[in-house]
Fold this sequence. Notes:
With 118 residues, this protein is mainly α. The chain is 59% helix and 8% strand. The protein has a two-stranded antiparallel ribbon with strand order 1-2. α2 (11-38) packs antiparallel against α3.
Amino acid sequence: MREFIRNALKRQKLQQLCVNTALSNFVAYAVGSFVMVLTTYHSVERRALKNLFGILPRKEVVVHRLPEWLEWALAVFLGYLVMEFVRYIIRNNKYLLLGDGAERDKSRDNGEEPTITR
């Protein structure tokens, strides 16, 4: 059990986990923000009684093309999909693997089957 914990908490594995998580979360946040930017726009309010028919300065308002709940759900859903896609790419790209992943690829190249030790 001690050996498993020692191997699981190696500095390199923890660093890889943090980098992968931070990168995928950042890309997901960027995609969610981009969805919000695409589904809203700013407009100047019209003349009305509340601005004394143009005597008072007009305010800039945010106009939503979709209902706000749908914008939010779409941003979260697309952000999640992109986050998982980035994690998939990082996990399966042999050039992005660090440390342990490179060792696994070498053992497969020699014709050896990877073994699981318990």
